[in-house]
């Protein structure tokens, strides 16, 4: 069906109304929430204390997820798929927590999730003037370097003296129209408390993913620790066991990862014609390799599980985005929107002089972007693809090199403000699987050769006279699988790395200059000009539409509003709830429609009329996984775990008629903990008042 | 770079010149060859005797390839990749002719290629009036049925009384603007004589495929047999051992499979936005599964080899087509061409009344085509994907049913004129590999569910309560792997099939009505209206441009002309020849740049200056594989085995500046047979005068 927001785009410029006027649209920052509009539409008062309480209970997880604090002892609700990697890392050939579930019977059994950090937003400060001052008059790669150096300095200064407990991050909003310093209280000791069986959390598997009706208990619990003890978290949400009602207002507080709603038509066409199709083809083949790998043995299935889940989930999401972009009406509407904004800008001579023609500049960048895409992708941006060993090696090699430089001269991801998280991620112990490394490295190297061609300089440098298969076999023997060795290289820095005879370290040392060169080329010719133009487009939007709009998603804290509501598409009406009873009706006994053992005999143990999953009109996207669904009174009523298939075009716009967030209810979770898992410890903690 | 034929398209209507005027363009039928143009450009006389001789030496292979008769005893030159499947079928777990090569030391050792038929075109007869009379006034599915019935009847009548030695086939040319009856002399006993090692034929593998410079000995020899003896074939081409010269005129006689140069812009957009991307995604995942499968053991590598080769080859070809269509200039030029042709048609009131608005009708079909694409693809058109067992079962079930009907009431592929080839293909013995069946069936069924969704009626019917994995395991135990059982069911017909308890037969019996229903729906709503409109567009073209144009490729015999010539792209000039010496320079010792054992020490045995592969400006496409490259004097100078990467957009148009055919020279073949393979028997036969 046609997306309503395409029509909305056309209306927007003409009426000078914000894009969000037509529906429950918007991933709003906490310092610019449209409380008046929400009050008018839903009668709910979202005042400063309400916002502060919800903000203080919302935790961003470094695995790319959202979550909420739900008790005073640091208990955190998130999705099962957000702890799937942790559960797999904690497993061995003999235990499979990701598939069989995990339950700490007592606090001492709660287990550290390697590399995971939780961050709760504390303050927001506008730092736009400082960043703009640093970049004034700069262009291309110089602009990128100056901006990133100013960001690093601002972050370092913002958390100076409190680095152990806080992390400061500058968020570019409105594509650089604003820069805000977000200071987070951070928790670097996050432990797994409870996870249901993989099959219970992901019943229906990939076929049901992004669909509704749905029967997934996609939840799990983590706990924040401080000094080896559960953190005291008085600012938590209240656990509600009563299910939401049809039409009930729902707020979602979380970290939507990335949207492209402010891109120009030309940029969207590059996504449509190149970036998304290339990624889909790559993921399809990797998916095929992983599926067959997983069928070879139970152990292969176990170790490939998390990566395959991620690939299939991303594939479906990106496929939805691509399908949205193929609709010619979308590009036509964006083209008109761009032209109208440009025309409105040019009516004011002063404004026109300030803004210039960032649309034309953006269009001019696209051929370069297309030409550089493949070397940039395979040699730098996605080098190594899913290989942990390559990831570790590059991180260690680059950190070793960059840490010898002044902070403002480094690659930005190695600035002082980023080092604490990097160190934790590289030195926390976690299993590395040589057979899976062989698969991912071989895949990456074969696609590098295929896409760059066998005769390209980059291919010759990375492969030499080896084949992807033989080189991958050599590299997957790297000692970097050992956390102690990684710590030794991290601590030893550049000298220790230069002296290492590890094959993966040698490989990265031999190729890194080429990777850095293509990155610099890309920043000079693509990132710099694009970001510079985007800033001015943002200014044009502020000038024409005011600041009552919301920025694109950036994996930073946002609040969306909406209500429990089904939808109608092509004459078919989907009601907003599923109930426990439906689970047994949908179960076939065959994967992925089979039930975990504990659930096979549990039909009589739960109330068939308990609300299981539900949908609401909230505007969400990937990264929101694990976000609390919150009532008007600030109670948590569920954990958002998905969007419906119609919402996948949400990257480019929101259609309130059909886009829906999918949430597992606290009512269903409570009943499962009580009657199926008999987990009195958690039930007692959750229901304590 | 921009394709010249896009500009050509724009010129065409305005000047009323044929599309082919600008370059060595065209896949010409033998009854409409532009001899005058060739004489003018190359000074070569292509007269009726020349054409008759070349036609009589050109053999179409039922595996989708071309070939030429090169001695008086039925010896046929084609590509290695055209006999790869045959060589694999003749192999066992202990012998691998596809990889290690095959050489019959004496005639008695030449081995039957299962299911293979060679066909040499004898006569061409215009049957347009008869087909048109049968379809007059009919539309939609009725049109398709009437046309196909008339075609079947025409074919049956055309070969009446000589069916044992001849096959008649009606070819729809100019998208139905003409119908011609092609009568072929057929050879149903085709035997493998010689094949080099897989690594010699496909040196450089997938990375070098569709590239040049190239070092592939992609040739092999078959022999036509009659009554158990080598066929007498006096009308053969003469084997030339002298290499072609730069600029030398070259003719290619073969069967280009399919081009879409006459489609409307709207049809091309559907290919661009749906058919090609969907196919690429599917092939990518299957490729990934097959690659991993092949890595599991030498035997898995052996049995997956031919299917993986085919998938990778198709993937690269389709990817090239998709890339051509993504160029907005192509659709814009086609749109203008369509509009100009329509406008020219409408200037003449009588013509306008006859033609109507087939462009508008074609556009109106596209939304239906898109809506029906997935069920039609997965349940009917490509059901089973690569599964031999499903292919056999459907063929037997449908043949059993259709043969109880009058000829004109059958599905057209089961008309009397088609049965002989079908029977040979289904009853010839060839190995079926259960592990590979499991892989392909599981893949097909999982993609069926993914694309149609788990809740679709089609998914429920095909899968029932089984999963793709369990259903595939059950079906891959089918007895249809046994040729004797297939023969029993073919001979026993409908009753024997109804009584069969074979799981694959039962599966097809249970699902075939649904497959036929979606096919009928598709023919009613898509094929019928599209083909009906295409006929009238063809008439408009004839009226405006005359009949001096060539039709789209249809895997029927065509002749293209051109010359040995390199090309220049983005400032890089590629010379037209490679030489033996270059092979050892390119070899790295690692797959796919490794040499077969016989070649590792052979550098001193061959002349490094012998022309190995060469390129020419001939207009070819998939299906031309194995075609003879022919000199002005009618000698064979090579076997065409590829196009360069620039030629992949050739499906939609020909750019004479950069599109090149790639050929392995008879000079190189002769030298290899003499000095590396020491095959005196073949050398003597080839050089006999």
Instruction: Write down the Rg of chain A.
Output: 25 Å
Low-confidence stretches of chain A: 1-5, 7-21
Number of individual domains of chain A: 2
Total DSSP E strands of chain A = 21
Mean pLDDT score of chain A:
94
The number of helical segments of chain A is 25
Tell me the overall shape of chain A. globular
Largest sheet of chain A: 11 strands, antiparallel
Describe this structure in words.
- The structure is a homodimer of 689-residue chains.
- With 689 residues, chain A is of the alpha+beta class.
- Chain A folds into two domains: 2-117 and 188-261 and 557-687, Beta Barrel (Thrombin, subunit H), CATH 2.40.10.120; 265-270 and 345-543, no CATH class.
- In chain A, the strands form three sheets. In chain A, strands 1, 2, 3, 4, 5, 6, 7, 8, 9, 10 and 11 form an eleven-stranded antiparallel β-sheet that branches.
- The longest helix of chain A is centred in the C-terminal third of the chain and has 43 residues, at 503-545.
- The radius of gyration of chain A is 25 Å and the shape is globular.
- Chain A starts with a helix and ends with a helix.
- Residues 1-5 and 7-21 of chain A have low confidence and may be disordered.
- At the A-B interface, helix 9, helix 10 and helix 17 of A face helix 9, helix 10 and helix 17 of B.
């Amino acid at each position: 069906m046609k997306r309503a927001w395409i029509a909305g785009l056309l209306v927007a410029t003409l009426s000078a109304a914000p894009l969000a006027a037509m529906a429950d649209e918007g991933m709003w920052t906490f310092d610019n929430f449209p409380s008046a509009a929400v009050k008018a539409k839903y009668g709910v008062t979202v005042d400063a204390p309400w916002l502060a309480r919800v903000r203080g209970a919302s935790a961003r997880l470094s695995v790319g997820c959202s979550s909420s604090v739900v008790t005073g002892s640091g208990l955190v609700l998130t999705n099962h798929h957000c702890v799937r990697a942790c559960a797999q890392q904690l497993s061995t050939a003999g235990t499979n927590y990701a598939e069989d579930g995990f339950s700490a019977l007592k606090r001492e059994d709660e287990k550290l999730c390697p590399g995971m950090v939780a961050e709760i937003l504390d303050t927001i400060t506008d730092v736009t003037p400082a960043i703009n001052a640093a970049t004034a008059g700069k262009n291309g790669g110089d602009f990128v370097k100056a901006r990133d150096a100013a960001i690093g300095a601002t972050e370092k200064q913002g958390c100076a003296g409190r680095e152990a407990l806080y992390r400061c991050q500058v968020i570019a909003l409105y594509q650089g129209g604003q820069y805000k310093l977000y200071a987070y209280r951070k928790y670097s000791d996050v432990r797994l408390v409870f996870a249901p069986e993989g099959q219970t959390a992901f019943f229906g598997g990939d076929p049901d993913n992004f669909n509704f009706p749905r029967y997934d208990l996609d939840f799990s619990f983590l706990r924040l620790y401080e000094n080896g003890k559960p953190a005291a978290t008085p600012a938590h949400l209240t656990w509600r066991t009563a299910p939401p009602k049809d039409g009930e207002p729902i707020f979602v507080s979380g970290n939507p990862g990335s949207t492209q709603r402010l891109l120009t038509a030309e940029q969207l066409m590059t996504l449509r014609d190149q970036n998304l199709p290339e990624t889909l083809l790559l993921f399809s083949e990797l998916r095929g390799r992983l599926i067959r790998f997983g069928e070879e043995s139970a152990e292969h299935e176990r170790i490939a599980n998390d990566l395959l889940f991620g690939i299939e989930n991303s594939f479906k999401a990106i496929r939805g985005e691509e399908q949205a972009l193929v609709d010619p009406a979308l590009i036509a509407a964006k083209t008109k929107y761009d032209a109208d904004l440009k025309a409105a800008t040019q009516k004011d001579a002063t404004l026109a002089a300030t803004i210039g023609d960032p649309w034309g500049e953006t269009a001019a960048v696209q051929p370069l972007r297309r030409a550089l895409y493949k070397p940039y992708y395979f040699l730098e941006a996605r080098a190594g693809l899913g290989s942990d060993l390559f990831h570790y090696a590059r991180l260690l090699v680059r950190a070793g090199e960059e840490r010898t430089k002044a902070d403002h001269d480094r690659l930005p991801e190695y600035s002082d403000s980023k080092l604490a998280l990097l160190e934790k991620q590289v030195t926390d112990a976690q299993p590395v699987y040589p057979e899976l490394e062989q698969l991912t490295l071989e895949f990456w190297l074969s696609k590098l050769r295929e896409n760059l061609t066998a005769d390209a300089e980059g291919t010759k440098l990375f492969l030499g006279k080896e084949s992807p298969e033989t080189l991958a076999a050599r590299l997957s023997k790297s000692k970097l699988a050992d956390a102690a060795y990684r710590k030794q290289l991290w601590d030893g820095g550049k000298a220790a790395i230069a002296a290492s005879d590890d094959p993966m370290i040698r490989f990265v040392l031999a190729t890194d200059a080429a990777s850095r060169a293509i990155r610099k080329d890309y920043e000079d010719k693509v990132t710099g000009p694009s970001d510079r133009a985007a800033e001015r487009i943002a200014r044009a939007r502020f000038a024409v539409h005011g600041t009552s709009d919301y920025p694109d998603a950036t994996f930073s804290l946002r609040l969306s509003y909406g209500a429990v509501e089904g939808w109608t598409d092509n004459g078919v009406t989907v009601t907003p709830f599923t109930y426990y009873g439906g689970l047994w009706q949908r179960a076939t006994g065959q994967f992925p429609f089979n039930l975990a053992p504990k659930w096979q005999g549990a039909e009589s143990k739960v109330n068939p009329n308990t609300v299981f999953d539900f949908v609401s009109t909230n505007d969400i996207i990937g990264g929101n996984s694990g976000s609390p669904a919150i009532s008007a009174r600030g109670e948590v009523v569920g954990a958002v775990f998905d969007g419906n298939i119609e919402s996948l075009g949400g990257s480019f716009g929101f259609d309130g008629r059909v886009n829906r967030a999918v949430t597992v209810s606290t009512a269903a979770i409570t009943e499962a903990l009580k009657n199926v898992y008999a987990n009195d410890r958690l039930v007692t903690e959750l229901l304590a008042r």
